[in-house]
Amino acid sequence: MRQPKLPQGMVQVYTGNGKGKTTAALGLAMRAAGRGLKIHVIQFMKGAGPYGEHIAAERLFPRMQITPTGRAGWVTKGAPEPEDLTEAAMGLETARRSILSGGYDMIILDEINGAVDFGLLEVEEVLRLIEERPWHLELVLTGRNVHEKIAEAADLVSEIQERKHYFRRGVPARVGIEN
User: What angle do CA 65, 123, 121 make, to 5 degrees?
Assistant: First the structure.
C-alpha cells in the first residue's frame, strides 16, 4: 500500500436538481491532481461517452483516471433493463476494488446517488463502501436525489438547486460544457 497523502479523508456528497454536481467533483479532482494526489472517478449510468472529462483525464494519467459504466441511452427509473443492472454492479465492484486497493487518495462515484434512486443499486451497498473506505481516502458521491441514509453518513452535503437553465429554452447539450 502506498503512503497516504491526506491526513484524514472525508465523505462529500453533491446532490440536487441543478447543473454542476459532476463539475464540482471534477473540480476537486483537478485540484487534487495538481497537488500530486491520485484520483479514480467511477461513473455510473454514463456509458455514452466519451465526454470532455475523459479526454482531460487521459492527459492527467496516471494522476487521474475515469472508468465509465452504463450503456448508451436512458435508464428507465424503477424499471431498468438487465444491462443497466449489470453495468451498475460492475461499477460498484470497480469502486470497491479501488477503495480497498489503497492506491488512491480520492475516489469519485459520479452519479451513484442516481443509480440508487433509479433502483440500479441498493443503498446498503453504497453505505458499505462508505464504511469500508480507508481513513485517509476522500470519497465523493454525486447525483440527484441522495438517499437520506447516505446524506447522514457523509461529512459534507452540498445541494445544487436550479433557478434557471437554458435547456428550458431548447438549448441542447454543448460539447465542452455539458459533455
Answer: 60
Please provide residue 72's backbone torsions phi and psi, each rounded to the nearest 5 degrees. -70, 145
155: number of Cβ within 10 Å: 12
Q: CB of 11 within 8 A of CB of 139? A: yes
φ/ψ (deg, to 5) at 127: -60, -35
Tens of pLDDT, residues 68-121: 999 988 899 989 999 999 999 999 999 999 999 999 999 999 999 999 999 999
The whole-model pTM stands at 0.92
Beta bridge partners of 39: 64, 106
Domains and CATH numbers, the chain: 11-162 (3.40.50.300)
What region, left, alpha or beta, does residue 111 occupy, with left being phi > 0 and alpha being psi -120 to 50 degrees? Answer: left
Extract the C-alpha cell encoding 179.
459533455
Q: Is the peptide bond before 7 cis (omega within 30 degrees of 0)?
A: no
